[in-house]
Structures are given as C-alpha cells and as structure tokens.
Recover the amino acids of this structure.
C-alpha cells in the first residue's frame, strides 16, 4: 500500500472516512489508495452530498483532492441504491481527454472491490462511435466525457436516456463554461430531468462569472464551498519571477538546469509547439535530456508520458500550454467574448487538472497569457500538501522583439500579465518574489549558450517536430498493443530520446571547472542550491532537511 503524504493544511485530521458510513468496499479501496483522512473539501462535499443531498459548487486549491470529493459520494450512492438496476446514474464532464482518462483511472481504483456493481465508461476513449453507442446502451452506471462527446453520442442514438440521472459533475467548470462548450451544455440540459432528483457538482480551483449561468441552469440552492486560503506559514507553494530579456531566458534555463540549481522534477511550460522543440533541441546540446508534451502527440503517448513522469522515469518535461486563455476585459477572442475551442487543442490541456506527481518546480519559461492560466499551471506543483516552487521568466516590455530568433509574440504582454498575476495571487494571500540574478556572473556561460542557440535552426525545429510525431505515432500503436498484452513492459518505451541530429558538441555537454561556482568545484556532488559567487566564502544552507528552502537562494545578487 503506497502511503500518500498530505499536509495537515489540506487534511481534516479529526475526521475519518469511516465516519461517513461508506460502503465497506469503498473504504477498502480508499485504504488501498493510501488516503488516511479526507481532505477538507472531501469532508464537506461528502457530507453535504450524502447527508443533505445538496448541489455543490466548490472552489478549492489545485491539488486539494477535488476528484475524490465528488467521486466518493457518487460511488457511495450507487452502491447504496440496490434497487436501481442497470441505469446511467452519473455523468462526469471534464474539458479534456486527458482529464477524462485520469478521472476514469481514479474511479477504477475506487471501485476495484465493487465487482460489477459499478460499471464505468469513458466516452473519450478512441473507439468507434457505433461501438461506443452500443456500450452506452448497456447503461453503465457512470459515464465520463467531455461535453461535446456526450452530446455527440446522445444525438447519434435518441434511445439513450439520461432522465434517471442522479449525479451530474462538471469538473474544471470555469473552463468548461468559458471554452465554447456552452452550446453543448445547453443541448445537454434538454436531456436531463433538472432540479428533480438530480444532484449537481460544479468544481474548480478558479471560478468566474461564466459559472453563474451554469449555476442558474443546473443547480437549485447549491452549497458554495470556498476552500482556498491557507495561513501564511502553511503555504506550500513559493513563487518567484525573474525579469529578463528573451535571449537570456535561454541562458538562465541552461545554467539552472546544467548546474542543477533546482532539485527534483521540473515541469517547464512554453507557449507554442515549435518553442517546445526549440528548447528540447537547445538543451540536448548540453546533454540535458527532456521529454515533450503537446497537443499534436497522440493521446496514448500523452497519457504514457504523464504516467512515466509521475513514476520518475523523466526529470524534465517540457509542456506546451497553448491555451492562450486571456484575462477578462481588454481582449476577448471572439465576438461573444468567449474563447473558442481551437480544433487541435480543444480536448487537450496540460495545465488543467492533470495530476502530475511530485513536481518540485513549475518553470514558466514562457509566462502564460492570463492570471487564471498561471493559477492552474503552478498548481501542477505543491499538490496534495507537498512543497513546491514556481519560477516565471518575465520579458521586460522594452526588450521584447529585440532578438527575433528567441522572441515569442505572447511575451509582449508579459509585464501586464505579471501585474495581473501579482494582483490575483495577492488576493489569495500569496506573494511573488523577484529574483535579481547577477547576469554578469553568467557571462562565462554566454558563448556556449550562443553556440547552442544558433545550432537550433528553424529547419532543425521543423524536422524534430515531424520526427517526434512520427515516432510517437508508432509508439502510440505499440502502446495500444502493449497496454493490452504486456502492461509491465511499458516502462521500456521512452519519450525523451534525441529527436534530431542537431550537432552535439562534447565541449558543450561538459562544464569546465573554471566556470563552476567554487562550492561545486570543491565538492562536485554539492550541485544543488549552490552559491554562484566565484569568491565562494559564505556557508550554504543544508540541503534536504527543512523543505521550505529557497532553491535559488544564493544565485541572486
Ligand atoms: N484524502 C487524501 N489523502 C491523500 N492523498 C489524497 C487525498 N485525496 C486526494 N489525494 C491525492 O492528492 C492528489 C491531488 O488530488 P486531485 O487531483 O483530486 O486534486 P484537485 O483538487 O482535483 O486538483 P486540480 O485543481 O489541479 O485538478 C492526487 O494525487 C490524489 O491521489
């Protein structure tokens, strides 16, 4: 049994899962999951749902256990009701296929001792629609889907009935509400027996006014849970930013990664597809291996990459988050002010809800385009009560566009977005701290950065992108068969191979002694959290002990 550590701040230590009078099969599964106590949002949601039959709107921090908060009451109620035979009793809607799979996997674990009492169906599984319709007609108790896929299937077969539905869950509800799913939700409401027996859960870490119309449409007298603000000294997430120019972002990431200034697994976000490959190839020059995650890769590969990252097969994942969510007001994407679903990425989303495990640092190589997207990105670390840090590279407005090859359009607004991020974080009681790097001290690394940066041409990026897709399409097929035949062999399929023959110079891979900070030269094993002043001298903080270290502590002026 793997025990998952959850900090006191999220966990309701006075409460046990047994106190909810849950079915023994469910209790056994919860024990197997290693959950000792419910989290705060779970205690409240389970009670309100099972005892008071309330509709629930919950805003709770990223990583605070919202999935179990709605899954447990849904499964409990299905198990408790032995009279309703073979009916679709719950629909769980999420914005992306990744999340559908994640929720499906979690429900599978939760129902592992339930035999055939609870059947689950993930509608976003890439199976033929006809087969899907016939599987829905077998009336599994729980359907998991994106709104558009569900409506699609309902429109394909008018015999399917949802009037007996007891639970409707919309997870990441603000994204579902604002991301072009409103037509699908309107259509869906026509299939439901709203405000009768139906109990509704609307969940997210961020709620906005788009959710109000869903609240009016789907809920009656909902209980509103807001479980977000932690005490100052109990915050697990430490947030930093560095103001820089576009080319120096490449210098910074090289130095940070090469000298291992951040300990543990790092999730790097970039804002477009080519950018991800550019960074991967650039780092490859220095012998730094990374793995790519983006909307172009087949779903099987995406799921496998996240799974392997969670199992610590990779330490560095470069994820493209091209959602381009904007903060309200000044700019909206379409005439009605709603962001539209772009075809390729419409059902892909990596900053939302994906349960990355044990991420030490979220590094926003490119700053997201909205404060809301920032909340979700940085929420990939410091999950389930663990500590984590977020580091964002912010381009000075005056420096934007000065060096075309390293430039990206979104960075033009970085300073404005940073101001909004600071504002929203402040309202939640958080603070972003600036890091003043002494860029002069990194001058020794600059020529290597230049060399490596220049070697990554546009053609090399295009070539890498094509190769990776081809490779992953083949891997994806293999994965499909492997998943069926040989699940334990999956770990051997790696996604962090070199994707291009970019000239790889051994000189770039090694960092000569004279460039290293003194502390590292004296003791090569001591590479994390080192002071980066050539004179050395000051004592380092002990690594590993107390968690709330400032990981880049001595690197700034
Ligand atoms: N009671 C619990 N005890 C221990 N670990 C838990 C508990 N509940 C959930 N977890 C773990 O916490 C992690 C985060 O849970 P979950 O993915 O549900 O968070 P979330 O609130 O939905 O986050 P997000 O807003 O990012 O989607 C998961 O790995 C989950 O297994």
């Amino acid at each position: 049994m793997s025990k998952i550590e959850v900090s006191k701040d999220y966990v309701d230590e006075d409460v046990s899962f047994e106190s909810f009078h849950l079915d023994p099969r469910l209790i056994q599964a919860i024990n197997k999951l290693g959950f000792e106590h419910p989290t705060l949002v779970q205690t409240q949601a389970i009670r309100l749902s099972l005892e008071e039959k309330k509709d629930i709107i919950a805003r709770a921090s990223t990583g605070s256990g919202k999935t179990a908060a709605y899954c447990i009451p849904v499964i409990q109620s299905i198990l408790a009701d032995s009279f309703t035979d073979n009916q679709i009793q719950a629909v769980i809607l999420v914005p992306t296929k990744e999340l559908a799979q994640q929720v499906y996997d979690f429900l599978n674990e939760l129902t592992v001792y339930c035999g055939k009492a609870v059947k689950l169906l993930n509608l976003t599984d890439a199976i033929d629609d006809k087969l899907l319709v016939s599987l829905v007609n077998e009336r599994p108790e729980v359907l998991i889907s994106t709104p558009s896929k569900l409506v699609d299937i309902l429109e394909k077969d008018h015999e399917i009935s949802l009037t007996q539905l007891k639970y409707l869950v919309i997870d990441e509800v603000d994204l579902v509400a604002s991301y072009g799913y409103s037509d699908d939700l309107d259509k869906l409401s026509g299939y439901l027996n709203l405000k009768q027996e139906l109990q509704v859960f609307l969940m997210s870490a961020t709620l906005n006014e788009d959710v109000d119309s869903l609240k009016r449409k789907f809920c009656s007298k909902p209980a509103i849970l807001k479980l977000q603000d932690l005490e100052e000294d109990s915050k697990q997430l430490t947030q930093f930013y560095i103001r820089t120019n576009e080319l120096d972002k490449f210098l910074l990431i090289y130095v940070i990664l090469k000298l291992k200034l951040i300990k543990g697994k790092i999730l790097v976000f970039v804002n477009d597809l080519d950018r991800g490959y550019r960074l991967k190839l650039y780092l490859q020059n220095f012998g730094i291996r990374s793995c790519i995650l983006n909307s172009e890769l087949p779903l099987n590969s995406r799921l496998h990459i996240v799974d392997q990252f969670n199992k610590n097969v990779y330490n560095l994942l470069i994820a493209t988050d091209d959602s381009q969510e904007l903060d309200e007001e000044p700019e909206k994407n379409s005439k009605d002010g709603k962001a539209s679903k772009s075809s390729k990425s419409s059902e892909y989303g990596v900053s939302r809800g994906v349960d990355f495990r044990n991420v030490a640092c979220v590094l926003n190589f490119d700053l997201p385009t909205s404060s809301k997207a920032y909340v979700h990105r940085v929420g990939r670390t410091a999950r389930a009560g663990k500590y984590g840090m977020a580091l964002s590279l912010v381009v000075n407005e005056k420096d934007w566009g000065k060096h075309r090859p390293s430039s990206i359009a979104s960075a033009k607004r970085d300073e404005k977005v940073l101001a909004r991020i600071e504002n929203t974080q402040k309202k939640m009681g958080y603070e972003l701290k600036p890091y003043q790097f002494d860029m002069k001290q990194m001058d020794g690394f600059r020529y290597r950065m230049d060399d490596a940066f220049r070697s990554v041409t546009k053609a090399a990026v295009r070539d890498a992108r094509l190769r990776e897709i081809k490779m992953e399409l083949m891997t994806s097929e293999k994965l499909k068969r492997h998943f069926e035949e040989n699940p334990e062999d999956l770990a051997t399929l790696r996604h962090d191979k070199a994707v291009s023959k970019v000239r790889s110079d051994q000189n770039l891979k090694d960092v000569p002694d004279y460039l290293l900070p003194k502390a590292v030269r004296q003791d090569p094993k001591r590479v994390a959290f080192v002071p980066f002043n050539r004179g050395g001298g000051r004592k380092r903080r002990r690594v590993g002990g107390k968690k709330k270290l400032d990981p880049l502590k001595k690197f700034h002026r």
User: Anything to note?
Assistant: The domain at 232-324+345-456 is CATH 3.40.50.300 (Rossmann fold). The radius of gyration is 24 Å. Residues 4, 6, 35, 38-39, 42, 60, 62-68, 205, 353, 355, 379, 383-384 surround adenosine-5'-triphosphate (CB under 6 Å).
